[in-house]
Design brief:
single chain, 6-stranded mixed sheet, 8 helices, about 25% helix, globular
Length: about 375
């Protein structure tokens, strides 16, 4: 039976140091849910609390309606995949995958059949009689995943499982993990600090900082309408520019210090007032031209041609630096030192209050506002 996971007012302390002050979260049955954040934000700590490896100083943890705070980890029916694979070096692939099944005292035929099924599912069956030292990192991680799934857990927990792999293997393995999770349909909680990885595999993401969930939503929602400036700068790349919001006859305008002014729609009614703001402009949301149009003056510092796109690194007339991504064309690349004009795609940029704590535009979908 698949489980949903509910966490109410979780608190984690190490001595006088509070790592997680008051956290509420609900992971839906069968979803791929990712905890994303910088090192030290509390994501692995929270995962280990769910697993039963860390003590809980406050709050309640549930699998469906069952409170698991005091339940032994071995009784929680979880599968765990670690960063360092944690497969037994003195056991063959087959014996590694069979390990959890044997511990459950299952019949030999069942153990063998179940292990073979998941070795085949993870494409490591041909290595069944090899020791881990004769496997690549990606193959070892497949074995670790096969072992975790073979016991048919109700919850799968993964702690930075791809961070020890090279870039190409990480891309390959994240596709494997998502495909297998879809096939098996198991409730999965995944920890990573890699934004691209989180975007690629997740149904929903919780962005964490200093033990506090900043935003919960689909990858698309979080990228397009981040709840605050921290989320905007952590998910993907963005340019941060200070401006003033001016309201004139019911219309709102962004007024930049260089003199550029443009209308911005979608400002929340309660935020329609003159105020200092911070604008998040992703590299693809700048429009670049060498023509004489109303915009922000800038100078090209450098450019990198990457096939489909060309990345420009520019200095604005205010002295601020920005990155711009433009679709490559058959025309020549704009050379270093060229004077250009920039405008922004106001339908896609995000605008925050002066301290960056709140997005003042409509369209932010944040599941953390729901009752856990």
């Amino acid at each position: 039976m698949r489980k949903n996971i509910t966490i109410k007012h979780a608190v984690k302390k190490y001595g006088q140091n509070t790592i997680i002050p008051d956290l509420n979260l609900k992971v839906k049955e069968g979803e791929f849910f990712t905890l994303l954040g910088p090192s030290g934000c509390g994501k692995t700590t929270l995962l280990r609390m769910i697993a039963g490896f860390n003590s809980i100083e406050g709050g309640d943890f549930y699998f469906n309606e069952t409170r698991i705070n005091d339940m032994d980890p071995s009784k929680r029916n979880i599968g765990m995949v670690f960063q360092n694979y944690a497969i037994f070096p003195n056991m063959t692939v087959r014996k590694n995958v069979e390990f959890g099944l044997k511990n459950r005292k299952l019949p030999k035929d069942t153990v063998r059949a179940q292990a073979e099924h998941f070795m085949k599912l993870m494409h490591v069956y041909e290595y069944a009689d090899r020791l881990p030292e004769r496997l690549s990192g990606g193959q070892q991680q497949r074995v670790a995943l096969a072992r975790a799934l073979a016991i048919e857990p109700e919850v799968l927990l993964m702690d930075e499982p791809l961070s020890n792999l090279d870039a190409k293997l990480r891309v390959e393995m994240r596709s494997v993990i998502k495909e297998i999770q879809n096939k098996v349909g198991i409730t999965t909680v995944y920890v990573t600090h890699d934004q691209e990885e989180a975007m690629a595999v997740s149904d929903r993401i919780a962005v964490m900082n200093q033990g506090v969930i900043q935003h919960i939503g689909t990858p698309k929602n979080i990228y397009q309408r981040p709840a605050n400036l921290f989320v905007a700068t952590f998910i993907g790349r963005t340019n941060v520019v200070k401006a003033k919001l001016e309201v004139v006859e019911g219309k709102s305008f962004l007024h930049f210090s260089c003199g550029y002014k443009t209308e911005i729609n979608g400002v929340r009614k309660e935020m329609m007032k003159n105020q200092d703001v911070v604008v998040s402009v992703r590299p693809e949301e700048y429009r670049l031209t060498t023509e004489n149009v109303d915009g922000i003056d800038a100078t090209v510092r450098d450019c990198v041609f990457l096939g489909l796109n060309t990345h420009y690194f520019v200095t604005l007339s205010t002295g601020e630096e920005a990155e711009i991504i433009q679709e490559s064309t058959i025309d020549s690349i704009i050379e270093k030192g060229t004077k250009i004009r920039l405008t922004i795609n106001t339908e896609k940029v995000n605008v925050f209050n002066s301290d960056g704590s709140e997005n003042i535009l409509y369209g932010v979908l944040n599941d953390k506002n729901e009752e856990a």
